[in-house]
Structure formats: C-alpha cells, structure tokens
Amino acid sequence: MSSTEHNQMVEKITRGLEIAEREMLKEKARNNEDVIVCGDDNVIRHIPAKNFF
Asked: Which contiguous run of DSSP H or E holds residue 30?
C-alpha cells in the first residue's frame, strides 16, 4: 500500500467515524440521554446530548 493510498484510507475511516459519532449524538439527543465524557482533568462528566447541538 502506497503512502497516498494509506492517507486516503485513513481519511475515509476518520470521516466514517465522524458521521457515526454525529448520528449517535443525534439519537441520544432524541432520546433525551446523556453522553459520558472524561476531560483532561480525569473527571467523568454526564452531559445531555442536546448540549452538543
């Protein structure tokens, strides 16, 4: 696999993950659910998904 092909594959995977994340957040927002995140300070937080829009 050439470097160009590798970069193209990485870009496609990244785009797919971004789309999947956006769809997950939309579904969680529709269901009035929280998203659990951990910040740089290692504190776990529950944030309503609707806050991401």
From this structure: helix 3-30
Distance of CA 28 to the CA centre of its chain: 12
Kindly list the distances between the CA atom of residue 21 and the CA atoms of 5, 17, 27, 30, 37, in Å, as whole numbers in the listed order.
24, 6, 10, 14, 13
Residue 41: C-alpha distances to residues 2, 5, 10, 47 (Å) = 39, 37, 29, 16
The upper half-sphere exposure of residue 4, i.e. CA atoms within 13 Å in the direction of its Cβ, equals 0
Task: Please give the helix or strand (H or E) that residue 29 lies within, else none.
Answer: helix 3-30
Residue 53 has pLDDT above 90, yes or no: no
What are the backbone angles phi and psi of residue 10, rounded to the nearest 5°? -60, -40
pTM above 0.85, yes or no: no
